[in-house]
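User: Could you check the structure of this?
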Amino acid sequence: MTKIAFAISSVFLTSAFSAQFPLNKLPPHITLEQEYGERPDWAPAGSDKYIFLDKAGGHPFEKSISTGKVRSILPPSCDDCRMWRIYYLKNGDYLMTIGDDRGSATIHIVDKNLDKPAWDSGVIAHEGVAVSRHSWQLAWTDGPNIRYGEIGYAENGTPHLDKIRVILNVDELKERDKHIAGEGEGATRYFDYHEPQNWRPPHDKELIFSRYGTSNTGKYSAEVWLWNKETDEIKNMSNRHDFYDEPEGVFPSGQYTLVESDMFLPESQHAQILDLYMMRLDGSGDDMKRLTYFADFKMPDSAVTFKANQGVISQDGNYMLFGEGHSNTNDQPGSGFGIYLFDFKKAELFKKPE
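Assistant: Sure, the predicted structure tokens are below.
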């Protein structure tokens, strides 16, 4: 099947996963950018081009906002591949996790010219990959461990993954918790898995990662943590043990991160009813600004609530892309039903996002 034919057929295949949020309820600074798709990632520069998946375990596409043009970025010999995460690398190449299911997806590097088969690192990434915008460093999880590695290229252009090591282990983290104020008894009881999210700009020396567990409300919870590559120091940046705060995109200055949060609810709803907030990375968890209000609405004649998820910030800091989610536990985690564009200048929340 040609890429053009595949792109056309994909629209019909994903029609069941199209955006359903009532557009007349959107404020002027939020617009529906893409009627289907999930997990967008901005190009390394500017705020016009981004990549996305048509569905969980689906295929990758690239879109120009100014022209509206969508093109397939499926690598050669990969018509039957299933993609779970996609990212830009700093040189314009793509990182994709490819496998039969989320639990067996491996990190692949795809040449931006799409003239070579995807290079398979053989490294399994159970969830997302933290991809640096300023260096070749990566972080990914196998469940109990967050691992570190660096991408390199041979003279003939073939990628390789070097310097692989474990940087964070859940058992070791729980030992450290005993010596950290605010952790331990009365705080989140962490599970045996965690997830890297973003390298903190502009220097990318710190890794923002999620720790999941049971809050003191007895509900599923998440906290925003930071690991310093140079000192090996860790720090809880949210410290809001009553709520679910999962970090997503990060602002270019590194002063704020996005979080998927349920802080407006009386208690955590197992990460089902969420909106996007910007949270200052100062360790207090006090500076929280709500950006979306999708969770205020339900689907017509249904108990299913909308939610905003998978937010990412453009490299110029002017825009956010995010996905439409539904509070439906039958969906793949992070599933999206369309992609929305948030214009910070039109929102007038502040003169320029940090």
